[in-house]
Structures are given as structure tokens and as C-alpha cells.
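Design request, C-alpha cells follow.
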């Protein structure tokens, strides 16, 4: 066990619950740390059910293309905990991370605190120590009582689409969940809002008005869409004709549009050339990304393997649409390799794939105590009318997928599973892996690259 893993294991034992939405514990610890949240660079705070990480990836790409230095905080990680914390453009070093974790552990002095709270406190402490131009801060869950919601005066806030997820913590309706997400809105901070369900938008709008914030809303104040293989962005300041985003799928045009709206609405020092450069270079692993390497070699030559961390019904609807666009570009039977955490329903996640899948191969996510068993997912899939089989390992599932010649093979269902896949595939150390263009990072072969381009062209219809 590495020193980092040993520290994180100790921190996990400081509170009996992995998740316990509250702010008193984190505020107490931050006070003992001399309130690092008050010594941060300008903060852009991002909430929503899906799309947070991708939108932050676009913002980071835009700002860095304009020569700015950027801190980033996201979760969860895929391969190494270091991925969660980026200091002025670079992933935190293991040495610096360990020092910060041990410092907050000493300051906390054994008081009850959750894993996410104490690790977020370490991140905020690090962000306060290193100079940068901006901090892009991702909400962990919800917003109102999320640990990250300790920044009193953000530069701006973003709320991505709100849908059903984490209902046992956030509420069982979109309106209730939207109320939690709207908790990040702050008086004096402009807000950019992605397209929402009507009931969610009504709640967000009411929360904004109470704070004298006029939300800048997708479909009303700005829009972004695919046209002739390009991304077209439009608001009252004018129209931008831009290259398509490097990330694949129609939903990525939406995420990129929200990021561009934030650039313009928050007054960030980013010009059109920097936006175009960022769209071409943006990187966000395990979001409909092609795979090559040892795992790819377990499939036949004509097979086409992809990895995506989609893990809820809203995310899989977007994923299903992207795969449909791929199928128009090049028809192929679809095999889904699925592993899930037990906080989600297999039936809900599979519904968008009805009639589109040749076969489902299920996995128990290795090392995850709260994962659905492969047998349970397979049984639920068969009840829903799918041909499904449980497999013992990622490699066994890929070998079974090879029985469908020329298949498009998608591994999905959980970011935790995505991390296991990257690890099993011998993914390079994240420091180098993250700095590469997607085509280098995944060893993308030429035909996959061509197909990705075809998909982007077809997204606009």
C-alpha cells in the first residue's frame, strides 16, 4: 500500500458514513486551517447531475489557451487520487498531496469528518498556497450542503442539467434536486444555467431571483448547436463559428456551449481563437473514449472498443444518442459491458438502450463493496428483455464480446469501473496521460479517429 493510500484509509475511518451532507464539520476544520477558502483565486463553481467534469475541462482548455493558469478540483478520480487536484495547470505531486493530507489530518485532531470533507479541505488548503489565475471547483453532490459550498464570493456559478440521481440524499423529484443544486448560487455572482426540465428551471429561477441574480439560460439567452460539422454559438453579443469539440457526442456540444457562455457572461479574458484552440485540444478521460492496448487486443481486428463513465439514466440517454450517431456513420452490432454501483437501478440505466444492443455482459466492479453483483445486473437486464450474461472479469467480458464479429463494444456504467479498465489496460501515469491529446492518450487508430469525425458531422442531423 502506498503512503497516499495509507493516509486515505485512515481518513476514511474518521466518520462512520461515507456521505453525510452537512457544512458544520468542514467549516470547523477550515476555521482551524485559517480559512483557506477566503484566500483563493477567482472561483467558478459548477454543479449539475451530469456534464460537470466535461464543462470544467472546456473552461480549463479555454483559459489555458489564453495563457492563464488554472487550479481544478474534480471528483471522483479514475486511476490515482492526484487526478482530483490540479495546481496551476499540473496535477498535484504525490509528495505535496501527502503533506497536505497529513497536515489537515493533524489539524482535524481525530474529530468526526467525512472522507470527502477532509480531502476537500486539503485541496482548498493547497489552492490557497499556490498562485493561479482561476479555480474551477466541481460540486461533489447536490450543492446547498455540498462540502465545496464554502466559497462565499465566487466569480460565477454554473448549473448543468438537473435530473434524477442520488435521490436518497437529494430528494425524489427534479424540483427537490434542483433546489439542492441551486444552493451554489450567490448574491453578486453571475450564473450560467444549462437547459433544464421545466420544473427544475422554475426552482433555479426562483432561487436566483431571491438573490437578485439574473440567470443566463441556455435556449433563452444563448444557444450552441452543431451545423455542418461545426459548433455554432450564439448570444446577444454575436455569433461564433467554431470547430467541433474533441469530446464526442451531441451532449458535448451542449457542454461546450455552457462553457463558452460562462466565458462571455463572466467576462473571462478568453478570445475566439483561444476558444477554438481549447475545443480542439480538450481532454477528459473515459467520456466516450476509444481504447487501444492490451484490452483492445482481446477483441477481433474489426471490433471497436469504447469506454464511458456514464452511470445514471440521464447520462445513458446522452450516451445512447451518441452511439446512435456512430451507428449512422458506420453500422455495427453493439455489445455493452456493464458494471454499476448499487445506488443506481440497472433497469433505469438500460432503458435508453432498448432495441439497440446485441448483447449485455455484466461485471461486479472489482474492489467496490457497494457495487451491484454481475449476476444481479444480468438478471435485471434479462427481465427488461436483453440478452445478458454475467462475467467474472473485464478480460472475460472482452473475450465474450469477441464472439460478436465486428462489434462496437462499450464498457460503461460507472466511473469506478472506468478507472479499473484504465488500470487493467496499463494506462500511463496520469501526469503524462492527461497531458496528451485523446488520439495519443488512447492510442486511437486511424479508423476510430475518422469515425469520430463522422459522428461529429452527423450530430447536427
Amino acid at each position: 500500500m502506498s503512503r497516499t493510500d495509507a493516509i486515505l484509509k485512515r481518513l476514511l475511518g474518521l466518520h462512520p458514513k461515507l456521505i453525510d451532507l452537512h457544512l458544520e464539520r468542514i467549516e470547523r476544520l477550515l476555521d482551524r486551517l485559517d480559512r483557506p477558502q477566503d484566500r483563493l483565486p477567482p472561483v467558478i463553481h459548477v454543479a449539475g447531475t451530469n456534464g460537470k467534469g466535461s464543462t470544467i475541462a472546456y473552461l480549463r482548455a479555454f483559459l489555458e489557451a489564453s495563457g492563464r493558469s488554472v487550479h481544478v478540483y474534480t471528483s471522483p478520480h479514475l486511476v490515482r487520487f492526484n487526478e482530483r487536484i490540479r495546481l496551476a495547470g499540473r496535477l498535484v505531486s504525490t509528495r505535496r498531496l501527502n503533506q497536505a493530507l497529513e497536515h489537515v489530518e493533524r489539524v482535524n485532531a481525530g474529530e468526526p469528518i467525512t472522507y470527502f470533507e477532509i480531502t476537500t479541505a486539503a485541496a482548498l488548503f493547497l489552492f490557497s498556497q499556490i498562485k493561479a489565475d482561476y479555480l474551477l471547483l466541481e460540486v461533489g453532490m447536490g450543492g446547498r450542503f455540498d462540502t465545496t459550498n464554502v466559497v462565499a464570493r465566487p466569480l460565477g456559478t454554473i448549473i448543468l442539467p438537473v435530473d434524477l440521481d442520488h435521490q436518497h440524499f437529494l430528494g425524489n423529484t427534479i424540483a427537490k434536486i434542483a433546489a439542492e443544486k441551486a444552493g451554489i448560487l450567490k448574491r453578486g455572482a453571475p450564473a450560467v444555467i444549462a437547459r433544464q426540465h421545466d420544473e427544475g428551471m422554475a426552482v433555479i429561477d426562483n432561487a436566483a431571483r431571491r438573490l437578485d441574480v439574473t440567470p443566463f439560460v441556455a435556449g433563452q439567452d444563448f444557444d450552441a448547436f452543431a451545423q455542418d460539422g461545426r459548433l455554432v454559438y450564439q448570444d446577444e453579443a454575436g455569433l461564433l463559428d467554431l470547430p467541433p469539440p474533441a469530446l464526442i457526442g451531441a451532449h458535448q456540444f451542449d457542454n461546450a456551449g455552457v462553457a463558452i457562455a460562462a466565458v462571455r457572461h463572466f467576462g473571462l479574458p478568453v478570445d475566439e481563437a483561444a476558444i477554438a484552440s481549447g475545443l480542439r485540444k480538450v481532454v477528459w478521460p473515459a467520456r466516450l473514449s476509444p481504447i487501444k492496448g492490451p484490452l483492445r487486443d482481446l477483441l477481433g481486428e474489426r471490433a471497436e472498443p469504447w469506454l464511458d463513465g456514464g452511470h445514471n439514466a440521464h447520462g445513458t440517454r446522452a450516451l445512447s444518442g451518441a452511439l446512435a450517431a456512430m451507428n449512422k456513420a458506420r453500422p455495427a452490432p453493439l455489445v455493452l459491458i456493464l458494471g454499476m454501483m448499487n445506488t443506481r437501478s440497472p433497469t433505469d440505466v438500460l432503458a435508453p438502450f432498448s432495441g439497440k444492443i446485441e448483447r449485455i455482459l455484466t461485471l461486479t466492479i472489482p474492489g467496490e463493496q457497494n457495487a451491484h453483483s454481475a449476476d444481479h445486473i444480468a438478471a435485471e437486464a434479462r427481465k427488461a428483455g436483453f440478452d445478458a450474461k454475467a462475467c467474472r472479469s473485464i478480460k472475460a467480458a472482452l473475450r465474450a464480446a469477441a464472439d460478436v464479429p465486428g462489434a462496437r463494444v462499450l464498457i460503461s456504467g460507472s466511473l469506478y469501473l472506468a478507472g479499473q479498465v484504465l488500470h487493467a489496460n496499463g494506462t500511463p501515469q496520469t501526469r503524462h496521460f492527461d497531458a496528451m491529446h485523446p488520439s495519443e492518450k488512447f492510442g486511437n487508430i486511424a479508423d476510430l479517429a475518422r469515425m469520430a469525425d463522422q459522428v461529429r458531422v452527423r450530430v447536427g442531423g
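Comment from the thread starter after seeing the answer: thanks! The mean pLDDT is 88.
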